[in-house]
Amino acid sequence: MSIDQHGDHVLQGMSIRKLPKVSLHDHLDGGVRPATIVELADQVGLEVPEDTADDLADWIAERSDSGSLVEYLKTFDLTVGVMQTREGLTRVAREFVEDLAADGVIYGEVRWAPEQHLSGGLSLEEVVEAVQDGIEEGEDAAEQAGHDIRVGQLITAMRHTDRSLEIARLAVEWRERGAVGFDIAGPEDGFLPSRHREAFDYLASEFFPVTVHAGEAAGLDSIRSALLDGRALRLGHGVRIAEDLDVVSRAGDEVLVQFGDLARWVRDREIPLELSPSSNLQTGAISAWGEELADHPFDLLYQLGFSVTVNVDNRTMSRTSLTRELALLAETFEYDLDDLEVFQLNAAAGAFLPVEEREELIELIGEGFER
After folding, report:
1. Does 129 participate in catalysis according to the annotation?
2. pTM (two decimals)
3. Which fold has domain 10-363?
4. Which of 216, 291, 292, 356 is labelled catalytic?
5. pLDDT digits (tens, 9 = 90+) for 73-90
6. Interatomic CA distance for residues 161 and 331, integer angstroms
7. Position 1 pLDDT exceeds 60
């Protein structure tokens, strides 16, 4: 089945695109429109490998589909390069929110690393302000178009640099002005969350929510460190928690599984897994299980009761949308609307919002799926 990034899919007579969705793992610099890259690159004098939006989209997709997280991350040199001015940051953030709204998202959390956007002379405070301006402009534009959406910032530190405490303080400073949580991203293997224990200690002292990239390019040790050192309330990807599951036997639809202590803790504590199916294939995160979506341990984790959520990770690099990811999962694992609703309810329950607002999200999702 071929489902394009901007297409729709009908399941049980319902448009997946029109269903209310929650997006928890969506990178700002991974969702820049190719046409915007071409235009902004011309303005700032950045050389791009292709002159048209379509050709550039092809170029990015080809290099993203490498099976290596390291190679996958190289495509961000281009998107980050056009996000070094106030105007560029605001525009990208505005369009990002508009694209979320067009995808049926009613609540989203956008993650990005302010420290990567300073080469144009802006300060950390100024880049966060520029992105927040864009988010609010996008929310207003969506409202005028008849779509209610709210988007919060996940202020992110790069795990291979030494600015995490500074970025953590920045996130807390913006707590009442758009920031809803903190993350660390970048090269995962060899850079355990424990390297940033001081930042995580500070965030814990401020009761500020944390999600941590773990269990993607690195395995169980990264997940363990995210939980113990990072006090992570969610796991960014976390797909390799399946390495702590031993499938003892299969008989038809019945699967007997032996849990490791870490997997049981994540399952029993209902720690949300921010799974991104297409991205997990591209980066080789599921290489231990296979190379096709049908090999992804998503369904195993779901059937075992893990709090699975569905995410795009990087819309541009994976040429995807939340609608497309849900459609692909439905096609591959024969999910119905009830399953898709569970994924959205899991995401709503894991959102970095006050409980009253999470309950409102859950009600909106229920109403939307019932219609």
Report:
1. no
2. 0.94
3. TIM Barrel (3.20.20)
4. 216
5. 778 999 999 999 999 999
6. 41
7. no
